[in-house]
Write a structure and sequence with these properties.
The protein is built from ten helices and ten strands. By secondary structure, the chain is of the alpha/beta class. The protein has two domains: 131 residues, 3-Layer(aba) Sandwich (D-Maltodextrin-Binding Protein, domain 2); 102 residues, Periplasmic binding protein-like II (D-Maltodextrin-Binding Protein, domain 2), CATH 3.40.190. It has a five-stranded mixed sheet. It has a five-stranded mixed sheet with strand order 7-6-8-5-9, sandwiched between helices. Helix 2 links the parallel strand 1 and strand 2.
Length: 251
């Protein structure tokens, strides 16, 4: 029979260690599917659980400023991350540009050819064009910049259907609330009925960047920092690539 002290020591050595508390990540809606997969890969690689709050980046920035509990923020544009940073809410030196994206004009399949060949003329047939809210949602801001650069904003502005996030713009096409939409190329991987009428060339599009940062209010900073390092690393980069995201460039 083992001595009582030795039994206690063995139990202490064999008892499972307490898993780390889940990381709370506030992330842009367009990252929903890819970050779900990256979160699982992180856990399989030895990290803890990851919980996500997905919404429009502008909505997330407001929530963070209001004190919502989060460890990491991943924005769909630099502007919303700037809002949080200027408010003094991110850890100095933790901000990193993670990934990029590309814009497409989406429509139903039967309209795709007409949208592709006539879009540059802002035809009357495109009576409703869905984009993220151009006053706040990053995808909508990018879409407006593209339309302005092509001299099409004035023609399309009265026909804009603003949405709360980029996925909602895609749904507007699929349910008939819009004739076309400007969304991310990555959104087309989950499209149900809509297709990419055409992809906007990178040299005609605003530079799209998804920055991430650790938040000062984090109650799980060590694990948040570890997750941030993982999402900016090589394994996550391969998952981003499979979901059609692009690496960040210096253009």
């Amino acid at each position: 029979m083992l001595p009582k002290v030795l039994c206690v020591a063995i139990l202490a050595l064999t008892a499972p260690s307490t898993p780390p508390a889940p990381v709370m990540v506030f992330a842009a809606t367009s990252l929903t599917d890819v970050l779900d997969e990256i979160g699982k890969a992180y856990s399989l690689a030895g990290g803890g659980a990851v919980r996500f709050n997905f919404a429009g980046s502008n909505t997330l920035a407001r929530q963070i400023a209001a004190g919502a509990p989060a460890d990491v923020f991943v924005s769909a544009d630099e502007a919303q991350m700037d809002v949080v940073q200027k408010a003094g809410l991110i850890v100095d030196g933790s901000r990193v540009d993670v990934v990029s994206n590309q814009l497409v004009v989406a429509s139903l399949a039967e309209r795709a050819e007409a949208v592709r060949t006539t879009f540059a003329t802002a035809p009357r047939e495109i009576a409703r064009l869905a984009i993220g809210d151009p006053a706040a949602v990053p995808a909508g801001v990018y879409a407006r910049r593209y339309l302005e650069a092509k001299g099409l904003w004035t023609a399309f502005e009265p026909r804009i259907v603003p949405t709360a996030n980029v996925r909602a713009a895609l749904v507007a096409v699929e349910n008939g609330a819009a004739d076309a939409a400007i969304v991310y190329a990555t959104d087309m991987t989950i499209a149900r009925g809509a297709v990419a009428a055409f992809t906007i060339p990178l040299d005609q599009s605003p530079r799209i960047v998804y920055p991430a940062a650790l938040l000062k209010a984090s109650t799980n900073a060590a694990e948040g920092k570890r997750w941030l390092s993982f999402v900016a690393g090589a394994q996550a980069a391969e998952i981003f690539r499979r979901h059609k995201f692009l690496p960040v460039t210096g253009r």
